[in-house]
């Protein structure tokens, strides 16, 4: 106040005004840069939010702007970004797991990932609950068991075997007949598992099926982020097919993990090591039971198989074995913890005479003495003659009978 009083006494009311009034700050954003940013948003980066737009400008255009500055420029130019209204939290938040590898969340979502350049397809992914690290992801035409199996194999090979897995109640993860009756429980029967569930049981992974989407909110939140960012990243790479999208996906997921992964509360990892004798391609398979037929063969998928190794011990006929089919289509027998390779064979064909096919029947003309002609004759004179002859025969037979009796 003392300094302001002295300025007023020496310079008057004009001395109280700031000396930089009417001047542009030295660090202000130029009009040319504002026009360039606006043009880039309209041409290449339309649809991105403020944070992602600022990151793309720094990565691809070497323009360093804060998200608030980018948002302010777009608002001045009339670009309003639609922001989803957050719903009230009806479910209390669940605390993250303490260690990485304690729980994975897995799911799939269909989306127009390539916008109008290709039809919509589904993204399968799994995320670690403790670190929000995407452990595996793959594109498929639709939600399928092969997509989930590929994600699990990718994550296990990179990080290890997790202790638990959280998924929804899709029939890929559970059998429709998994609920047992009281009689079945008393009989000691176990709940049937799906092919994916059998793989989880073999790897000793605790599989939990969520009833509501909020229970696996970590992966549900991941879909919002990827649908907002991944679409633009694929557009900038010029990708137009699902095959090219799968090739670029690992690099994009690595970029995502580098930015959004968090540090867990505990530095110790909960992952179990994958032993060398465990082959994941033998675990994530289709499993069905078959009986060994005579000749040490079995039938699967309409094809006759026999064991590829001739030195393999022959199994008795009617022995029940488990036939597995891998994701690549290879078929083998899983017997006593070992994979027995199979090869296709053909049954010997018997030389059977070929039966002639029945042709069109020829018209049949009745003979002259056929009952159809003799009984229903249209000639009146002949018919009368036949009747009189018949009557005479009857009369003669009748008379001879009575004469003999007398």
What key phrases describe this protein's structure?
36% helix; elongated; Nucleotidyltransferase, domain 5; 12 helices; alpha+beta; 6-stranded antiparallel beta sheet; 5-stranded mixed beta sheet; 406 residues; single chain
The CATH homologous superfamily of the domain at 104-260 is called: Ribonuclease H-like superfamily/Ribonuclease H
Helix and strand pattern: HHHHEEEHEHHEHHHEEEEEEHH
Mean pLDDT across the residues is 85
CATH class of the domain at 104-260: Alpha Beta
Task: Give the amount of beta strand, in percent.
Answer: 15-25%
Structural class: alpha+beta
Largest sheet: 6 strands, antiparallel
What is the CATH fold-level name of the domain at 104-260?
A: Nucleotidyltransferase, domain 5
Helix content: 25-40%
Number of strands: 11
Query: Which architecture of the domain at 104-260 would the CATH scheme give at its second level?
Result: 2-Layer Sandwich
Q: Are there runs of 5+ residues with pLDDT below 50, and where? A: 380-387
Overview of the molecule:
With 406 residues, this protein is α+β, with helices and mostly antiparallel strands. Among the domains are: 27-81; 104-260, Nucleotidyltransferase, domain 5; 285-345, no CATH class. The chain has helices spanning 2-11, 31-43, 50-60, 67-76, 145-158, 182-186, 195-202, 217-236, 242-260, 280-283, 371-375, 380-405; strands at residues 104-111, 121-128, 134-140, 164-167, 206-209, 286-291, 297-300, 303-307, 320-325, 331-335, 338-345. A six-stranded antiparallel sheet has the order 6-9-10-11-8-7, with no helix packed on it. It has a five-stranded mixed sheet with strand order 3-2-1-4-5, with helices on both faces. α3 crosses α4.
């Amino acid at each position: 106040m003392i300094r302001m009083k002295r300025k007023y006494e020496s310079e008057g009311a004009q001395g109280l005004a700031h000396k930089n009034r009417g001047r542009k700050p030295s660090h202000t954003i130029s009009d040319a840069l504002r026009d360039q940013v606006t043009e880039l948003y309209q041409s290449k980066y339309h649809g991105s939010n403020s944070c992602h737009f600022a990151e793309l400008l720094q990565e691809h255009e070497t323009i360093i702007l804060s998200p608030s500055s980018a948002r302010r420029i777009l608002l001045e130019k009339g670009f309003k970004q639609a922001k989803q209204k957050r719903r009230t939290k009806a479910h209390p938040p669940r605390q993250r797991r303490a260690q990485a590898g304690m729980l994975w969340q897995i799911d799939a979502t269909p989306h127009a990932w390539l916008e109008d350049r290709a039809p919509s397809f589904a993204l399968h992914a799994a995320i670690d609950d403790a670190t929000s690290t995407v452990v595996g992801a793959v594109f498929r035409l639709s939600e399928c068991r092969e997509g989930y199996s590929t994600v699990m194999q990718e994550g296990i090979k990179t990080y290890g075997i997790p202790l638990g897995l959280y998924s929804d109640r899709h029939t890929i993860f559970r059998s429709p007949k998994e609920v047992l009756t009281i009689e079945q429980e008393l009989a000691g029967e176990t709940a049937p598992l799906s092919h994916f569930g059998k793989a989880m049981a073999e790897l000793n992974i605790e599989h939990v099926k969520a009833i509501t989407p909020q229970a696996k909110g970590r992966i549900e939140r991941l879909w919002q982020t990827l649908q907002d960012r991944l679409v633009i990243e694929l557009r900038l790479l010029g990708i137009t097919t699902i095959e090219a999208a799968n090739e670029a996906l690992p690099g994009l997921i690595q970029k995502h993990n580098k930015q959004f992964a968090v540090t867990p509360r505990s530095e110790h990892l909960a992952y179990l090591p994958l032993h060398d004798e465990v082959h994941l391609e033998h675990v994530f398979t289709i499993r069905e039971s078959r009986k060994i037929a005579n000749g040490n063969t079995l039938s699967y998928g309409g094809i006759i198989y026999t064991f590829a190794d001739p030195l393999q011990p022959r199994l008795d006929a009617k022995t029940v074995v488990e036939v597995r089919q891998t994701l690549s289509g290879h078929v083998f027998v899983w017997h006593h913890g070992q994979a027995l390779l199979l090869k296709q064979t053909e049954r010997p064909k018997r030389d059977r005479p070929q039966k002639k096919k029945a042709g069109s029947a020829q018209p049949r003309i009745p003979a002259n003495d056929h009952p159809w002609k003799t009984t229903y004759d249209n000639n009146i004179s002949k018919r009368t003659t036949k009747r009189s002859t018949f009557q005479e025969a009857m009369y003669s037979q009748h008379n001879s009978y009575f004469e003999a009796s007398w």
